[in-house]
Amino acid sequence: MPTPTEYETAINDLMADNQDKDARLQQLSGQPSYFGGPDDDNLIKWQLDFKEDLDRIYHLLKGHQIKEDKETGNVLYVEPSDKNVIPFNNFGVQIIMNIMSFYLNRNTILSNYDDKMIEWKVYDFGLELADLIFNRYEDMMITIDKKNSTEQQIKDHLSQKIKMYPMIIKELVDTIHSAYLRAFNGGERESLRTARMVTQSEPLRGMNFPPQMMQQKKQNWWNPFSAGK
């Protein structure tokens, strides 16, 4: 039978262990973890979210000029003063944004493609996109008022617009190509898995626990009276 002193020692050890656990939980709260801590969630969402990319593509297709707010330092998109620098009208922007949204998503980057499959998919996309815009450039690229413009003015307007056609196709195809490269041999999935594993282990290694937490007690949890033995 344990003596009263051994009872008291065991109870004190259990109380100390509970305090250590409380301290550890407080330090772990808010830290990234494998099961979705705040920082981990933000990283994963940022890595899989194409909203910012699609938003930038939309503004560029609309011909919006990029300016910086002097007071806040934020980047702003403003309407261009020259209608001739606008690549597409609303109809054209909508068509292209629909197409880009089908490709720039997590289904693409979380797939597993080899180099030949990526090459074929991007090549096929480039051909189809080039044909679409070329066949419908009159509907997609007129950004002046046709009712108040002569036939010659519209013709001159389109002749200037079509000069932007090769570069626009290249930019859009390169964007899709970059998305497919993230899926090369399942690279994006492996990147996410590795990031989560590192996130799970790093806080435990780098966290400054109280000195008493770094001392491992020789104690069987199922037998409090074995403390110190």
Short description:
The chain has about 230 residues and is mostly helical. Helix content is about 60%, strand content about 5%.
- SS strand fraction: under 5%
Largest sheet: 2 strands, antiparallel
Low-confidence stretches: 21-38, 212-229
> What series of H and E elements makes up the topology?
HHHEEHHHHHHH
Mean pLDDT: 75
Tell me the distance between the termini.
16 Å
With helices defined by DSSP (H or I, 4 residues minimum), what is the helix count? 10
Number of strands: 2
Shape: flat
Question: What is the radius of gyration?
Answer: 30 Å
Query: Spatial order of the strands in the main sheet?
Result: 1-2
Please identify the structural class as seen in this structure: mainly alpha
The helix content is: 55-70%
